Amino acid sequence: MSRQLLEEMLxxxxxxxAGADTNLxxxxxxxxxxxxxxxxHLDGADYLVAFEYHDxxxxxxxxxxxxxxxxxxxxxxxxxxSVTLGFYLARAxxxxxxxxxxxxxxxxxxxxxxxxxxxxxxxxxxxxxxxCGSNSCAADLKENHVKxxxxxxxxxxxxxxxxxxxxxxxxxTGISLDAMQSFLMGEVSKLFKTELGxxxxxxxxxxxxxxxxxxxxxxxxxAETISSTDDxxxxxxxxxxxxxxxxxxxxxxRTSVPDMALVNTELKDAGWSAVDLMKLGKKIxxxxxxxxxxxNGDAQKLKQRLEHLFHSAVPETLPRFLTSALLQVETLTxxxxxxxxxxxxxxxxxxxxxxxx
Length: 357
Known about the structure:
Radius of gyration: 24 Å
Domain CD-NTase associated protein 4-like DNA endonuclease: 18-218
Strand content: 5-15%
Helix content: 40-55%
Largest sheet: 7 strands, mixed
Oligomer: single chain
Order of helices and strands: HHEEEHEEHEEHEHHHEHHHHHHH
Structural class: alpha+beta
Number of helices: 15
Pfam families: Cap4_nuclease
Protein name: DsDNA nuclease domain-containing protein
Organism: Tropicimonas omnivorans
Number of strands: 9
Shape: elongated
């Protein structure tokens, strides 16, 4: 082959994508991809996953020099009713003609990079398809459905090649929008039992949030800023090594959640109200996740600044350390606006104090 697959993807222009239209739907897209990563991980696959690059999610193997690629489009509905083939082939009117259909957009991913590589397009739905089973290939559908796809795509795409229908797939997850997070945690549990054994005692929720944060960051990088294959891997992709490395990091991390009964008693004696103690308690789990996330550079900066504050004064009590930190909150969170919310900041301060004493 004349060029590596990653170089072909880099050269191919990005098509316009609408992206997920609600936070819940984006979360579903992200968590479905996360679940697929875990499945591949458990199968021993060497994978590389790109987010919002040519499609919603792109799976490539092997990670170092990919030879096969799956372009995945994730569609969701709140209702459980099935979706018809006509929906995926419909073309809305536009000022300059008609917009491409969903299957037309999927087919576009074959263009320019198909030669010499194994390319698949995968339409993922959280509800059933009315025209096929939960895991089907377009070429294997009933004859009338295959004919409908061929006729519609031939009219839409001048370079349509029906042989590529054997590489166009439909996957129905059967997992509702509301159930996906719980399903993900079940998959995470399987992964941790396999990697660390029964009774590992590792905070799986903290690790899950760590990976979700990384996926969010990769998803939000503008594809137009990618100018090399190194950029593509570093800015837009997550791979097997990331999951393996972060599992070991959280397994080896000795940071513990502060004993909130002791914290509450000390702060109550210092004059804190019951309402403020409750607000602090609600922020602790998120603060612990950020504190233990080695890929979260902003949280690591805040951690270092608070550690410096602690060692510059070595406060005798938690209330005194909290008071000292709050007096300098603007300086401590300079450039870290997401961490300036009062009770989140104080939760982070509590964790640093707990670790340093």
